[in-house]
Design goal:
Chains A, B: It comes from Hespellia stercorisuis DSM 15480. Two copies of one chain form a homodimer. Chain A is an alpha/beta fold. Among the domains of chain A are: 209 residues, Sandwich (Immunoglobulin-like); 222 residues, 3-Layer(aba) Sandwich (Rossmann fold), CATH 3.40.50.880; 53 residues, Golgi alpha-mannosidase II (Immunoglobulin-like, Sandwich), CATH 2.60.40. In chain A, strand 16, helix 10 and strand 17 form a beta-alpha-beta unit. In chain A, helix 15 crosses helix 19. Chain A starts with 12 loop residues before the first strand and ends with a strand.
Chain lengths: 728, 728
């Protein structure tokens, strides 16, 4: 790494440590210039380590890990609504063995509260609630018996359970074979005893742990929805799910406040459990808001205790983070000093970096980088520095746009210590990070285009679109998540807007709106595109000069003879079979176009989109193959629309997207400003600091033409991974 | 061809002829054993030809080709409802140039009738009708001006036109550059003068043409919807479309009879014009019935005139055939002697053969085979016998199941005459056809399985599913139409049932129900699957032992947590994004399965279907690739479901479908009865005739094991195209 020869500095780096590793820890603090130490899953810092000249973070669990309390207050145990499997009625009575498929060490039916009030039996074939008088519960068999059933209808019961085992501890417990280690029982601070306990325990803990500088909350109260099957394997995982926030008390308080009662179905939602892919309903949005306000209020009380004790409060973005959404309206009230989260994963290094680095209302953010110091990567014969480099180069793009304030690692330091090449590499990373952090110095880089990502979630789910389990690959998401990964390190300003944000003020702050996703999902927008005000607002804005880039099934909602409600903007619609009788004459790909001008590789639309066709001769067909359009553009008043069939992350597609944005915004003439011709390279400009940087995002040397702010060009060669810093 | 050495017979074959071709015509009648002669587009039979020892067919146009009448009665000209292009309002007034994109030599706006009553302006963005007081027509500019428009809404006007040029004549006129040949003006027999004229003219024509034996109606009154664009190219084509049946008088009579008025939108239907892919609405079904009854009544009057003159009445299945649907409830009343139709086309030789051969209530059916004797196939250097062989071998499969009563050809006989190899080939075809017709002798062959194709159209559209323009290839249909092409020559009984046919009686007559098509189309069924009675009826039937084969998006209708409403039957559903949070563990393809046991080629699912997943461990995953299921099966009570992602026509896929049907029906043990092991071969058994035939459907020699009715096997070799006839 180039910067190695520079003066080394210290700071902005956190390392894990462990007991009986003092001298090596000191050495590593020095090698990496690290200034903070933390514990991890399975490690503890001993007193000598805590006494080192470094900030000490310690993991803190609020609502689990206190079974001495929880067992005494099982009535305050956390709850979930679950939906049973479907049972087919073959006669007029049908039995629902509702625990079938669930893990009885994780969840236990709630027979404490009145099942007739809190449970709901639904005829899923008729889509109707079964009268309470037509069913009963056989507790000893965990069965619901439905009478007066309609033969060959399918029935489910939505039932309340107690969540008697924290799912993260459960996962670690089972994976690591912890035997008779007690099962952590999560309790609910909505109840008075739990609330008091949580605060009192923290107070005492702060007294008992004077050497901890940073309380690393992991996290607060409610775990994202994570339910196991009867073989103790993951059955349902939604990193955004509110499933575990439910309780009878919460439902009662909701009704008192909102004036209407939630039904179990408002939570269970056909078994979809309000996945973030669902266009959210009003009751669900109300419920989220209700939970967020409660969580913010309660979390703020704990943070205050930490501050009163003279320490910092850091939140780990994960586990029990539901209700703390950092981009939500109540996050500021929590008063946290810092948020730390995991960077990387198979589908989005840049995305997860920005997800953390953009978090507002904290003093600092910290990204925990891969690989985790676990035997999965650190085994004999493997070179973990390879994974580290891939992750770093992809994350670094995003850091150049908006750095986290700190980087860190997790796991067993003693393990990583045995891999000197790796240590060398991350020592270089630490130096490079500090250098670029200093160079950027809190300034915002130049952006050629201001982009708004439009979906049902808007700001709340900034950099969190299309995720299911945190940063894992899913066939149905990678072609769309790629858009965000491309943008995460590109010279554009990115904001996330919801359909409620289509105001003049917001629209005025944008050059291009991107709408991306599958039909009927919250990300393309589903039925929201049936609302005339929404459609008109976007049309009016594009017509007056805005740019619209649609990817996948943008604005899809079959109505009034169109599937894409913005078909006239993009110049394409999708054939559902209803317009096969209409001749489609427009099939000729343009010989060249700004968007694909420098494309040399074959196109990769990922899962792509079938049956998209051009509306008329004014559609610019930029890619046509297999009897369908995959890239197109169309003028619309003073503005333009662009359609792309899918955009998995790659260097090539980043370039394609950037050109699409410039074209949609009508700024092609600005393309050769602060730009490079080689797609493996990128330019970031920091006007406030009078600096700019040319990055080589690849591991190999690259030759490129570079255009400065006036369009003057210069040929450059960069080493693999090099950042060339220059004064303006 | 094997049968050439046999005794030649005469009959069952129609040839085209033309003027001044007498001796060659005689020779050809003899060579092919033809017993009928016809005229064609562009040819006439002279008196000497008509005097030959052959039945004489002559083309007869009822409602066009009589401009001397039509011009005097332009108020009885046929009409259409058309939808204008969408116009974007950018202010509170918007102009709709409604003729934009239409061909003014084909259609002319109807300013005779009150536009405020008969036209409809629709705000397609709000999906609302605009008040009549808010718009006016500027006749001189063919414009509608909408006031009080909502900016950035899109508007259309549905307007009535007179159809002043018959679209088939128009197509021939333009294609063949007929210059100043007058444009045939179609008139509407719903009006008194036209009705009288049609009958009187026919009466006189029958007197004037004593040598015509068969009046070949081409066809009766209303052309399928065929509209041209402003460049006189095809703009909209729907072989099933009722567009041209509309008139003010029809709409008034409909209202009087049904007690409600149709809106223009009931015809225009968002610009989809009630494509057969649309799940039909009640008003549209009412309207079709209304037209069918009228057409049957009026056509019967003409047929009676033909019969009274001692001639036969034959209908050409095409052109002005709307309302005559041969599988409809009123067809029998027309009293026709015969139907002739075109066999072949790029997507379905067998399908189009069965479409004709299964027509009930006529004395005989006739298939017109390809190639047509036109210069497109008969040019120097081309061997038209190649196309003839492909078509014949594919059609022959279907003939073996249910023969047409006659075969024929069309075009210029003088042209074909110059290709002796071709003449030799079709002479052999004629002999083979007569032989197999005699052998089959009106008996129904053995069927291993009774199949019902379930869709919104049922019997009415027997062998006509998925068609847009007659038998043309469309990307969106070939993967589904292949199912019918496979079945057309397979040893199964095929019926077409609608959702209204799910009665005990109909279901008892079936072994397997097939549901095939894209979501929301009339062929998969769309919203009909939201009806609990329909879902329950199919479930109950399968549960009691029936078989269900779903292809594409069968039973698709998102409701109650499922996309495929019969997911539990097939063991699969399609991921729309809402259940990504639910872990999908079932991904392992079975090592072997009855359905794919003898598959050697790679699978071909055509357009295939994405994101289909197995529900649980009971799903038999038969093909899994690219992270999705393409073939699966599942037990359901005593019955079974099978899912297939798509099934374009091929020998391999015919086999796959047949195995799927046997498996779904639980009849695997009957597979080795009256069957062969070589997929290029098929067996047809005629118990009433004590005969069976083993076909080689390929052009090359094939070796195969043959299983007789007791399962005894025997190895056979068949020459290319051979049919081996045997006594039982």
């Amino acid at each position: 790494m180039k910067e190695k020869s520079m003066d080394r500095k210290r700071g902005r780096v956190t390392l894990p440590s462990e007991s009986n590793f003092l001298e090596e820890t000191k050495e590593m603090l020095d090698r990496l210039g690290a200034d903070a130490l933390r514990d991890s899953d399975g490690t503890k810092l001993d007193a000598a380590t805590k006494a080192l000249d470094a900030k000490i973070y310690e993991t803190y669990f609020v609502s689990r890990g206190h079974n001495e309390f929880a067992k005494e207050h099982m009535e305050e145990c956390q709850q979930l609504y679950l939906m049973s499997k479907r049972a087919l009625a073959t006669a007029d009575q049908v039995e629902l063995s509702f625990m079938d498929g669930y893990y009885d060490e994780q969840v236990a039916p709630d027979y404490v509260h009145d099942v007739k009030r809190w449970w709901e039996v639904i005829d899923r074939t008729a889509d109707q609630v079964v009268l309470a008088e037509d069913w009963d519960v056989r507790q000893e068999e965990n069965q619901v018996v439905v009478r007066n059933a309609v033969p060959f209808h399918e029935y489910t019961v939505s039932f309340l359970v107690y969540a008697v085992w924290d799912p993260t501890q459960m996962y670690n417990h089972i994976t690591n074979d912890w035997g008779d280690v007690p099962h952590d029982i999560p309790f609910d601070v909505r109840y008075a005893n739990s609330d008091t306990f949580a605060k009192e325990y923290l107070k005492q803990w702060l007294i008992d742990n004077p050497n901890v500088d940073v309380v690393r909350f992991t996290t607060f109260f409610y775990h994202f929805t994570l339910v196991f099957n009867s073989e103790a394997k993951e059955k349902f995982v939604d990193w955004f799910g509110y499933g575990a926030t439910v309780s009878v008390k919460a439902l009662e308080e909701f009704e008192a406040e909102y004036g209407y009662a939630l039904r179990p179905e408002d939570i269970v939602d056909n078994g979809y459990y309000n996945s973030t892919f669902r266009v959210p309903t009003k009751p669900y949005l109300d419920y989220m808001d209700f939970i967020q306000r409660f969580v913010a209020e309660k979390a703020a009380e704990l943070v205050k205790l930490v501050h009163d004790a003279g320490r910092e409060a850091m939140m780990f973005l994960g586990d029990n983070w539901i209700g703390t959404e950092p981009y939500g309206p109540y996050f500021e009230q929590i008063g946290l000093d810092a948020v730390v989260g995991s960077v990387g994963g198979s589908v989005g290094c840049g995305v997860t970096l920005r997800l953390i680095s953009e978090i507002p209302h904290v003093k600092y953010t910290e990204g925990r980088f891969l690989p985790y110091f676990f035997p999965t990567a650190f085994y004999e014969g493997n070179d973990p520095s390879i994974e580290a480099q891939v992750n770093w180069l992809r994350s670094r793009r995003a850091i150049m746009r908006k750095p986290v304030d700190r980087i860190g690692y997790g796991g067993y330091l003693s393990l990583a210590y045995k891999f000197p090449k790796f240590i060398d590499y991350i020592a270089g990373v630490a130096d490079e990070f500090r250098l670029l952090y200093d160079n950027i110095g809190g300034s915002r880089p130049y952006a050629g285009i201001r982009v708004g990502i439009l979906n049902c979630w808007g700001k709340l789910r900034s950099w969190q679109t299309f995720m299911v389990a945190h940063a894992l690959w899913y066939k149905q998401i990678y072609s769309y998540l790629g858009v965000l990964e491309c943008l995460s390190g590109a010279a554009v300003d990115v904001s996330f807007i919801s359909f409620e944000d289509l105001t003049e003020e917001t629209l005025d702050s944008l050059d291009v709106i991107i709408n991306v996703g599958d039909a009927e999902t919250a990300f393309s927008g589903g039925r929201r595109w049936g609302e005339e005000e929404i459609v008109s607002a976007v049309r009016a804005w594009v017509y007056s000069g805005g740019g619209f880039v649609g990817i996948g099934e943008p604005s899809a909602y079959e109505k009034g003879g169109r599937f894409f409600q913005l078909a006239e903007i993009m110049g394409v619609d999708k054939e559902l079979g209803f317009t096969l009788s209409t001749d489609k004459y427009f099939k000729t790909q343009m010989e060249q176009h700004f968007i694909t001008e420098d494309r040399t590789e074959a196109f990769d639309f990922g899962e792509s989109m079938k049956n998209v066709y051009a509306l008329d001769q004014d559609t610019e067909i930029i890619e046509y193959s297999d009897n369908e359009v995959h890239i197109a553009s169309h003028a619309y008043g003073k503005g333009r629309g662009v359609y792309i069939a899918g955009l998995p992350y790659s260097f090539e597609n980043t370039r394609l997207l950037m050109r699409s944005l410039y074209y949609a915004a009508g700024k092609e003439q600005e393309w050769e400003r602060w730009n490079v011709t080689n797609m493996y390279c990128e330019v970031n400009v920091y006007p406030e600091k009078n600096k700019y940087a040319i990055l080589n995002n690849s591991g190999e040397a690259q030759k490129t033409w570079f255009y400065d702010g006036d369009g003057a060009k210069e040929e450059l060669t960069l080493n693999g991974g090099e950042i060339l810093w220059r004064e303006m």
